[in-house]
Amino acid sequence: MELLGIDHIGILVKNIDSAMKLYSVMGLKPALIEENEAYKVKIAFLPVSGVLVELIEPIGPGRLKEQLENYGEGIDHIAFKVDDIEKSLRELKERGIPLQDETPQLGGAGAKVAFLKKEGANNVSIELKEGGSEIV
Known about the structure:
By secondary structure, the chain is α+β, with helices and mostly antiparallel strands. It contains three helices and eight strands. It has one domain: 2,3-Dihydroxybiphenyl 1,2-Dioxygenase, domain 1 (Roll), CATH 3.10.180.
């Protein structure tokens, strides 16, 4: 498996519009804002130096809403680009890395995404991402 780089850092927020105040003062502007029904979130992608900051606002019940209620706002995950997500997932599984997603899901900007289990990744939520619209 080859990682092609860091795609984005996901930050869980209560409200994207409120969170944008800080990032706009720092000169960042959203390149894309959309809702993802599969994950029940509203997301905003803010490009900075070839990497995206992804603001994530839960808009329905699920893991992210529970995480926000229990732990508050903060970094949710780091996403790495891969060229073949299915192959990457197979290789990780064969090497004993626990997967949260056995098959890719539809992520932001039309990308294929899958998450590893935090327990097998030093308690860090890691997302693998293939394709999708180029935002950066």
